[in-house]
Amino acid sequence: MKEYDIVVIGGGPAGLAAAVSAKCSGVENIIVLERDKELGGILNQCIHNGFGLHTFKEELTGPEYAYRFMEKLYKEKIPYKLNTMVMDISKDKIVTAMNREDGVFKIKAKAVILAMGCRERPKGALNIPGYRPAGIFSAGTAQRLVNIEGYMPGKEVVILGSGDIGLIMARRMTLEGAKVKLVAELMPYSGGLKRNIVQCLDDFNIPLKLSHTVVDIEGKERVSAVTIAQVDNHGKPIKGTEERYTCDTLLLSCGLIPENELSRNAGVLMNSLTNGPIVNESLETNIEGIFACGNVLHVHDLVDYVSEEAKKAGESAAKYVKGEQINNNNNSVEIKAIEGVRYTVPSTINVDRMEDMLTVRFRVGKVYKGAYVSVYLDNERIMHNKKKIMAPGEMEQVILVKNKLKEQPELKTITVKIEDE
Amino acid sequence: MEKRELTCIGCPMGCQITVELDEKEVKSVQGNTCAIGDKYARNEVINPERTVTSTIVVLEGDKPRVSVKTKSNIPKSRIMDCMKEIDSARVKAPVKIGDILIKNVCDTGVDIVATRNIEKL
Asked: Its domain of life (chain B) (predicted)?
């Protein structure tokens, strides 16, 4: 069996950044396993601009951003295997994978970094009534067809869900000559970034209907029309508000789900809110030596944050491999997410193991205007930051300072919550 | 005095910006958190600009299309003209990231450049 210090599962933005940072932290023997035929992951089909403002201080397109990290990987001479599907990760970190050249093979890893990304919530999970004709695509599938393969999925389009990919595709399809009639969003707020509403919808006069959903799909061979209706506070369609839109295509942009089949099989414990692994300050899962980063951990809206997080996972994995990690003596402090804060990543902190500063990322449960993000160490409030606006579609963060936490040796719980005043 | 509410598209923060305008003159910009926002707001009310991204057909390449972008922003009103020129263009592999594929698109003074590598088949 081949042995590696670190096996990185996935060659997208998270995997690339994790591998490069592990190598730069002094680990030589690393391999990246990627199931697609090229590195870069989903960035290859995200041809729009807006990536990298935090990381590179310039605005790049998805493929350009991916290429920056691919170049680093090449420069560090980190080996990778393409067209390689990982089938299993065991508790003792034996990775079973397969491809056309090697067949089925096993790798023994000292540490594993999970970087498999996420996938779109499929149509089947949405329970839309009506027929099931051709012409219904997830927004990401349409994006791949248009941007990589060069096919247009349709001419008259309705989009359900206002996630970023849906918004981006509304503009993309319009630019390529399609008529995008409407974006309908079930929630009373958009799931996408504000800037995308401006430059993808407003710029092209595409209406966005909040609190609306698709209640019927028509068409035998191909979609011929959809009916949308307003929904009440419980998401139930309101009778009498139905509107019919003729169209040949329905795109779905209704959320992303971390792809954790491999993690679950390995025995990694999951957070039911993020659908990603529960991790500590080192982005380590409950299984020693298995780390997670990027969209497999929790869905991000900015790739810049994915790269930042992945860098940290790479450094942590390197420390673990080199035996420099301080033992996790169960001296963990729990981070509680309550009152408007849906979850935090990480969800526990071992103060001895944390770096001088630790970024804790979270999402809020609804739209807040002029509210405060507060952090409590047990009962003492140490942070109280006013935010003009917070929305579920935009990830928030607080930065915890090690020295501050060290001042309280008896610390049991860190609480992050939203307060009105 | 006219007041315009804008959402900055300079970065994913999406700051809410208020611009005060007198005729065609910007009197004040508020709500931005960086210099990009100030610049965006002043441009947006007088002469809105956008980056356009799309794909161009590649001949003899290992992929059918290469992703491209306008090297800098072009006037918002020229987006559709720019798309027409991009759609009718054909380039031959190999293509390197940063290669100029259309010079001075629609007389905007801005070039269309490749945003990825395409190998020759």
From this structure: Bacteria
